[in-house]
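S1.2 Input.
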Amino acid sequence: MPRFILLLLVVITSFLASRCVQDYPATAPYTAPVNPNPGSGTPDQSPVAPPKRLFLTSDKVKVGIDLNMGGAINYLSEANSSVNMVNNVDLGRQIQTSIYAGPFPYSVNGKQPVPQWINLGWNPVQTGDYFNHPARIVSYQQSPNQLYVKTIPLIWPLFDEPADCVMEHWVELKGNNVHVRCRIVVNRADTTQYEGRTQETPCVYLNGPYYRFVTYGGNNPFTNEPVSEYTSKENTLRYGTESWIALLNESGRGVGLIRPGKHLFGSAYFGSTRTDGEFDESSGYVNNHDFLLIDHDGVYEYEYDLVVGSLADIRQFAYAQARPGNKPDYRFGQDRLGWHYYNANDQGWPIQNELNIRWQRVDTSKVTFRIMSPVAFWKATDFTKIYVQAAFKTKSPTIRLIWRKPGEIDFFDIPTRSVDFPVINDGQFRTYEVNVGNRTGWDGIISQISLSPADDKTQSQAGSTVRIRSITAEQPGG
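S1.3 Output.
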């Protein structure tokens, strides 16, 4: 074989190998559209820029992201249809990532939030802002089966204000399943650690015909029991024990949002008609309603799937995914694992083998210090003890473990929902065995657990610390 052909093969092979292992694609140039500045006074909304879509297509689904909408998914249809299901009436819709942190109200560079969104706080939105300015595209790539986009989002309530974070999204199409991976890198000058808040990871807005909210919230997930359906417009939460929620039309077709291991979903309907298209106001809405503490320098990743088709298609896909364990198993090596706090903060990102938490009252509307797990699905009969591997240095000789059940609006600090256990406040690590199985209220489904001082009646607990390595239903090793 001629030498130049051999050299060419080596170059091609090396190039392909580098492409296979490259996790974060290189920059592709893109110039965003320029929106007119309406002048002084209260800014008006600018017109949405014309679409600049990149598509992936299978024999079942067509999906598109829009570079004039921050690279968010703004097109989704079945392959045999030319009707886009995604609502695009403004830059707060689409299928996208939207995150939240303090302070609220949030203002910067002399810009004040619009009154109707004053309490959103620091709110980077992947697509753009309330005034229809599109978010900045840093880079993007398209391959036959994947789209990639890197975005500087905008602060939703402020006028054309880039957020101090970057979002990356990878969109992959497999049959009737759209798999999305998101990576958020935060770089805020404000180093305050604000309390964890609910996030839209992601939010999904479909057009008016998609008004049926369907999920399974029963006590026996993955057994094909009947689902629950809602058509209320109310903005409310749904407890989905099979980790999915669907938005369907009259004929029973639509989109399912699947997030394995997640159980709390928001749903709402906006508008007054069930016939509107993608540039009309009416829209069905669902989201994954995760609590997340956003650090000023944090890095966060999450994944989700969109399944297009019938309820049977959506549920079948959910059943094929890996399922979470049936007991608490939190080991805080490099992540908070969804734990968050009231009136407390920790040493920040990155997490290094423990949660190092200091209790300090910053919100007088919340009457206690509390360390809370993410929302989960556990059967009380599956475990009777919880092991807390921690080092306490508090002003309370007793700590209270409280649990919550589905449908309860908050933790109830009552004997049938709690167990007190003594601790040694010398700052040394110990494993505390908490027997919950002998309490009359330990039954049915447990959806969340928390820790707080048993005698927290005043601000005397301020300055107390606890370092937690793990909270598990099995005796930790080591």
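S1.4 Remarks. The two ends are 60 Å apart (CA to CA).
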